[in-house]
Amino acid sequence: MAEPFTVLIMAAGRGTRMRSELPKVLHRVCGKPMLEWVVDAGREAGADRIVCVVRPGDGVAEGLPDGVELAEQTDGEGTGSAVLAAREQIESANGPVVVLSGDHPLVSAKHLTGLLDAHRADGAAVTILTTDRLDPSGYGRIVRNGGGQVERIVETKHPEGVPEEELAIREINLGTYAFAPDALVSALDTVGESDGERYLTGAIGVLSERGKGIVTHLTDDASGALGVNDRADLMRAEAVAQERLLEAHAQAGVTFLQPETTRVEAGVEIGVDTVIGPGVSLLGATAVGAGAEIGPHATVIDSRVADGARVLHSYVVESEVGADATVGPFAYLRPGTVLGEGAKVGTFVEVKNSDVGAGAKIPHLSYIGDADVGAGSNLGASTITANYDGRRKHRTSIGESVKTGIHTSLVAPVDVGDRAYTGAGSVITGDVPEAALGIARAKQRNVEGYADRVDPKD
Ligand code: UD1
Ligand code: CA
């Protein structure tokens, strides 16, 4: 068993540069809140405790995954105050405390295990994750003495007043550290405020003055090191995370025809040999099976698409598409739609809260809402369920192997039996028995000589 460690995530910053009502760490990267990315990295690295520092009442605590402990930052501003808000958890920690920033969504389990290995090997009071591969503007810089020992971290968020030679330092602090818990608390207790904040980075200077071991662990993974302070940073993190997700799906057997126009959110599952065309978005809790074809230009949200299904130029929300079923082009599946195996929903068709049986077809220009369509039925072009009487919604039941004529209106509640037919243009208000033909339209009448009357020849 590896030695236990605690992960402490600072997530209580004001994040004012995001210019948002939403706390910074709840902004999403590939659909998943930044903070959750960081929690997941801690979990994957094997942390036995994860503590998150939040600001009471800002809504961050509510969205935290199960098993994450909370500490509330009620006193003081700044990353040092954030860490001190978790004093109890640090004092009771078993093994090192890995301090992470909730605004570094791309920090990986590999960064953390590398950092911890270095920390254990050196037995230092603190090991700091650094990089020299990013534009260092705004980050804290690692200042070393003549002997190359870390002396302190200089903040450059406000570069005025920072000496030229310190602004020239390229090695930056990534806000990711492994600390010996007692050294961390005792150092922070002596750090004063600058610009109204208590800086965690001040603790490094204190530890150096006390002659404690300070080690850096350099990463060359520049994109994984990105911190998010504003929405331009968020955009960059999004691009990196998206590329990584697509890369992982591709390695697992998915073909992307035009990855640069494809959006696949974190947590989406895709089976092998599935082909994702241009302009596709797979969002939320979506799972696509194997050998499916999605796109071009399809959006699938919180839905399941089974093996071998095809979804072309369509918008699919909270629906289930059965194996080998076809959707689109130009279909809209709304919540509660379930398509059976081999079913077809075609062009300019909207389906809502309906069960469409195996092999059933709704090929053209239809609205099917609150209906059950039996297996093997074929609904003629422009079959419409009138499911709403202005006050309440009612269900339509269509049996198996039914054939509706074009322009059939089914005024719910209504029941069409197995193998029944409806005549073209019918407004069906009463049940149609099994195997019957329901016709409900005025008989045709021809008015002879009509044109001669209204439009006489000279
Ligand atoms: C911090 C570091 C800087 C480092 C950079 C890496 C300090 C003083 N500076 O700067 O050296 O290069 O991160 O990205 O630590 N937070 C709280 N409570 C607070 C303030 C912040 O929990 O009162 C949290 C934030 O939510 C954020 C993290 O701490 O997740 C970092 O805070 P932020 O204000 O973004 O620090 P930086 O200026 O980026
Ligand atoms: Ca930051």
Would you write up a description of this structure?
By secondary structure, this protein is an alpha/beta fold. It has two domains: 6-225, Alpha-Beta Complex (Spore Coat Polysaccharide Biosynthesis Protein SpsA, Chain A); 253-438, UDP N-Acetylglucosamine Acyltransferase, domain 1 (3 Solenoid), CATH 2.160.10.10. Helices cover 18% and strands 29% of the residues. The strands form nine sheets. Strands 16-19-22-25-28-31-34-37-40 form a nine-stranded parallel beta sheet, with no helix packed on it. The protein has a seven-stranded mixed beta sheet with strand order 5-4-1-6-10-7-13. A hairpin with a 5-residue loop joins strand 8 (141-144) and strand 9. The termini are far apart. The structure holds uridine-diphosphate-N-acetylglucosamine and calcium ion. Residues 101, 103, 227, 229 line the site of calcium ion (CA).
